[in-house]
């Protein structure tokens, strides 16, 4: 008579496959800890700091146990995730905070990132990892959000999601630099942005005590003004299009006149998203959408919207060659896109060729759009 197993453990084959598909890197968001490395004391020995963890528990009464699974399913590759020992302990100790659905999503996203690294050498060593907001505006208490390669910050409410990136743009000295300094002048308001730059964690923090009392800190030390070695491209509907391209592109994307010619040359030399071509002629800009070039002042609002989306995406591609780059698109910056064009944009943004982070802020999740490779972050 066969003895019934008390646990449905993984075989060595499954453990090895989980580790290999994870690149021997922890799958916990933004951990990226290497879990296999050379021993310092023994030349022919490796140290393993990784665990093939069960998504749903291997035995009854364990974390996230699912009685509907068979023994084979419970011990299969699909029920496992590769983690470092620290995070393997954490997801089981605090199991109510980590659902099986969430762990499966981590695994999927992590394997896709490992595949991108293998195919194109994309490492995203320089990236925004985490945002913390403390008592800022109507966001009372402490709110912490992980930021992924591709993230959607979602809330049906009119507050929160855009404010977070307005604050970040203030950190970079972009167009929202003074907005929050004037709004909240009684209790201290704090925002923190944790970057990974050349494998070093840099946490920039700014505190607003009053309109005339703003303090910046880097890793807990006061600094005069932040200067992150990082690029942020932030497109919202704040810009009201005029007939002056130079003024509009400066207002919307902080692009100076002196670099326009080289940027246009870069755009024309790359695969484009929404336009077929763009050129400067006698200091006027002409854009090709279909068969004929149209001067900027003759473009309708929806055409200008597509043009600025094109410029923002191309600028992110260009900047990411030299430094970490995040592209933030507020939903209001592409309101005129139909479902087909919206899906095409999503598909292009998650392309393996892109080495920049993408954030979309929105008040709705379109059920007809496949947000593949995006992590949806619910701002509650």
Keywords:
5-stranded parallel β-sheet; 18 strands; 6-stranded antiparallel β-sheet; alpha+beta; 10 helices
Description:
The protein has 380 residues and is an alpha+beta fold. The chain is 28% helix and 27% strand. It is globular and about 80 Å long. It contains ten helices and 18 strands. Residues 181-186 have low confidence and may be disordered. The strands form five sheets. Strands 6-5-8-9-10-11 form a six-stranded antiparallel beta sheet.
Write a concise synopsis of the structure shown.
The chain has 380 residues and is an alpha+beta fold. The protein is 28% helix and 27% strand.
> What is the overall number of helices?
10
Characterize the main sheet: 6 strands, antiparallel
* Structural class based on helices, strands and sheet pairing: alpha+beta
Strand content: 25-35%
Between the first and last Cα atoms, what is the distance in angstroms? Answer: 54 Å
Q: What is the element string, with H for helices and E for strands?
A: HEEEHEHHEEEHHEEEEEHHEEEHEHEE
- Round the Cα radius of gyration to an integer and report it: 24 Å
List how many beta strands DSSP finds. Answer: 18
In percent, how helical is the residue content? 25-40%
**Sheet with the most strands: spatial strand order:** 6-5-8-9-10-11
Unreliable parts: 181-186
Could you say which overall geometry the principal axes of the C-alpha atoms support? globular
Mean pLDDT across the residues is: 83
* Oligomer designation: single chain
